[in-house]
Amino acid sequence: MILRRKRTAILVSGRGSNMRALVEAAQGPDFPAEICLVLSNRPDAPGLAFAKEKGLAVAVVDHKIHAGREEFERSMQVLLELHGIDLVCLAGFMRLLTPWFIGQWRGRLVNIHPALLPAYRGLHTHARALADGVKIHGCTVHFVVEAMDEGPIIAQAAVPVLDTDTPETLAARVLAQEHIIYPAALGHIAGGSYTVRGNRVLLGEPAAEPLPLLVPPVA
Ligand code: GRF
Asked: Which of 63, 113, 126, 137 is catalytic?
């Protein structure tokens, strides 16, 4: 039985497909998080329409009308506190956060990154993975710390890279997995079923030994 669902905010800047996956997961009656706020730094973020349709609280804090990064974040912080937020999920939120904001949310702020961290931090991850010729690529959900795209890893999904891949086809294959692991990771964090030991987030072992991903597959 869930005593109190964790009040969760999702921060977006664009398309919002991960936001959508989190919102849909949180509609499940047993999901330990409820989405109480969708916040964007861009008034025109396409993802906001879906959140409004769902009747969720939606807010825009436009970074362009703030004097600096910290002023912008203080405005977000006021809204997050007003909505009694426990957890913050970054989902395609394209602003770097200051140590001040990260300090407010330490251990309660998570991000999804379209690569298997610690490989390919930063932008253009799919094109860089293709240029390097890697055979396996993927995505990572992690706690946010001061250093960009670092922090204890909560969940990862790996996908094969195909000979025919372009950055777009590879991005689509990875994105499908993002939509699976982000809700799963939020479920663990909101449900409290994890322990952090150094950089490792321990979630408990699966019942059976998981299959390895081999590229190419070996019979
Ligand atoms: C995703 O690929 C996510 O990993 C990255 O930004 C993208 C956002 O996509 N951080 P969406 O807005 O969730 O569709």
From this structure: 113
